[in-house]
Specification:
It contains seven helices and nine strands. By secondary structure, it is α/β, with parallel strands linked by helices. Its EC number is 2.7.4.8.
């Protein structure tokens, strides 16, 4: 049996990764298993433990690191995030494709651990649009928004490290492009990036 395809999706906070995942779940068009990350941050309204994230405390997360239970882990905006290793490897062994939605530091760790991973960067149409989206969420203070924008500048500078870039200026189109990349299709005439900003 051929192992499945591992696809890693990352992009700055507020770019719409969660919106795309929600859209693909709602339309039942996600052609792979979506890995569930562990995190020490508290749930946002509507998030369910074991469905959106595994919500754990700091002590448990550090245990997972020490025991080698995480494929990658990162510290971001004062909270920890990580991908449990065994479920990912099990689905790949079964021949299923797996999608990891993670931050840049984690994506780089996965690329080192699994060089065959296909790396996709989700970018905002502009920095101002990203600021608008972060502010519009209403879940963070002005200081937290400023910190996320500063981090976004660092992350957007890393676009060239990725196999494909999708600009999230339209949810439906961006979702379709991601599905095409997961199943190994590319938009006609596309080069290394699935969609480039104009």
């Amino acid at each position: 049996m051929q192992p499945g395809r591992l696809v890693v999706l990352t992009g700055p906070s507020g770019v719409g990764k969660g919106s795309i995942m929600a859209h693909l779940r709602a339309t039942r068009t996600l052609p792979c298993w979506l890995s569930i990350s562990a995190t020490t941050r508290p749930p946002r309204p509507g998030e369910v433990d074991g469905q959106h994230y595994f919500f754990v405390n700091e002590e448990r997360f550090l245990q997972m690191i020490d025991r080698g239970e995480l494929l990658e882990h990162a510290h971001f905006a004062g909270k920890r995030y990580g991908t449990p290793r065994e479920p990912v490897e099990e689905h790949l062994r079964r021949g299923e494709s797996v999608l990891l939605e993670i931050e840049l530091a984690g994506a780089r760790q996965v690329k080192i651990a699994m060089p065959e991973a296909f790396m996709v960067f989700l970018a905002p149409p502009s920095r101002e649009e990203l600021r608008r989206r972060l502010t519009g969420r209403g879940t963070e203070t002005d200081e937290q928004v400023a910190a996320r924008l500063a981090q976004a500048d660092v992350e957007m500078a890393a676009e060239s490290e990725f196999d494909a870039v999708i600009v999230n200026d339209d949810l439906e189109r961006a979702s379709t492009e991601l599905v095409d990349l997961i199943v190994g299709r590319r938009p006609a005439g596309a080069g290394p990036a699935a969609h480039k900003r104009t």
